Amino acid sequence: SLHVYPVKGCAGVEVKRVELDRFGAAGDRRLMIVDERGSFVTQRQEPRMALIRCRVVPGGTLELEAPDTAPFVLRPVNAGKAKQVRVWDDQVEGIDQGDGVAAW
């Protein structure tokens, strides 16, 4: 089967087909969890990330679900507060998705 991972390190979503763009599979690993120091978080640090499920809703909205937590609807933004993020040995620019999802 074919899967994409909308949030890097979280559970994957089975898809029937994938469109490609200049970054690879569209919608795959475009979002990540970042700690307060600006470093991305992996399942090695937080194994519970594997329990976070994403449901892609038409229009680009994501519904995030995790055990014992109310679901969260995220409408990803491509413009906004930019942050420098460390991914392994690289510094990349990311867009903060807001306090709501950070608190979730």
TrEMBL record:
Domain Molybdenum cofactor sulfurase middle, chain residue ranges per copy: 1-104
Superkingdom classification of source: Eukaryota
Protein name: Molybdenum cofactor sulfurase middle domain-containing protein
Organism: Cryptomonas curvata
